[in-house]
UniProtKB/TrEMBL annotation:
Name the UniProt record assigns to this protein: Arylesterase
CDD domains recorded: Lysophospholipase_L1_like
Pfam family of the protein (one): Lipase_GDSL_2
Domain SGNH hydrolase-type esterase stretches: 43-203
Classification via Gene3D superfamilies: SGNH hydrolase (3.40.50.1110)
Length: 228
């Protein structure tokens, strides 16, 4: 091939090569930033998540983040708890409560529905829709279960208690069966109202749920999320 034609081809190829190199650089930069940033988990719930009666530094999201970081995980736990909220109310604010870049969500709702004796069918519909919307955004989900108080009767419990494991199984998401496991009914682990855990109670919740949250983080990593 004549030298002039070779030079012309090189000139024509140079811009395309530059574009390809720039694209590769951007891709590797994006991948590096994704791997370097903390895994973002939103704790989406009611007063049990918000930490009613406690300093924010001792609320569930803060204690969970500290426990995970102590185990070497680079995580950020966002507190998206609102006191007094029911599952249908949570559904109403879902879209603006989960910020862009969220890798996973812990859904902790239903306690207020139960305490008010609301129809479990409404709770089921709202929680199912919350989980489905999160899945549609490719966000990993851990559903935290709740159990009916004994004073509501066996019939109510028979309708309320199973909805959490049933939703988790139906939607294929992780389940922590009872958010207040080992804490409910223990005066030493609750504030004077008997409903909200104190600092020690939150620590007990964190210790119980921690293995499931580690499973949640593993799901994020398997999908190519931020790394440990």
């Amino acid at each position: 091939m004549p030298q002039a034609e070779t030079a012309t081809l090189r000139k024509l190829a140079a811009p395309a090569l530059a574009v390809a190199l720039a694209a590769l650089t951007a891709l590797f930069t994006f991948a590096s930033e994704a791997a370097a940033r903390p895994i973002r988990i939103v704790a989406f719930g009611d007063s049990l998540t918000e930490g009613l009666g406690l300093p924010k530094t001792q609320a569930f999201p803060a204690q969970l983040e500290a426990a995970l970081r102590a185990k070497g995980y680079e995580v950020e736990i966002v507190n998206a708890g609102v006191s007094g909220e029911t599952a249908p109310q949570g559904l109403m604010r879902l879209d603006w409560s989960i910020p862009p870049g969220t890798d996973a969500v812990i859904v902790e709702l239903g306690a207020n529905d139960m305490l008010r004796g609301q129809n479990p069918d409404g709770t089921r519909r709202a929680l199912t829709e919350i989980v489905r919307r999160l899945k549609a955004k490719d966000i990993s989900v851990l559903l935290a279960g709740m159990r009916a108080a004994p004073n509501l009767g066996a019939d109510y419990a028979a309708r309320f208690d199973p909805l959490f494991p049933e939703i988790a199984a139906q939607e294929g998401v992780l389940l922590y069966p009872f958010f207040l496991d080992t804490v409910a009914g223990d005066r030493a682990l609750n504030q004077p109202d008997g409903l909200h855990p104190n600092t020690r109670g939150v620590a007990a919740i964190v210790a119980g749920i921690l293995p499931k949250v580690e499973e949640l983080i593993a799901q994020v990593k398997a999908k190519g999320g931020a790394g440990r």
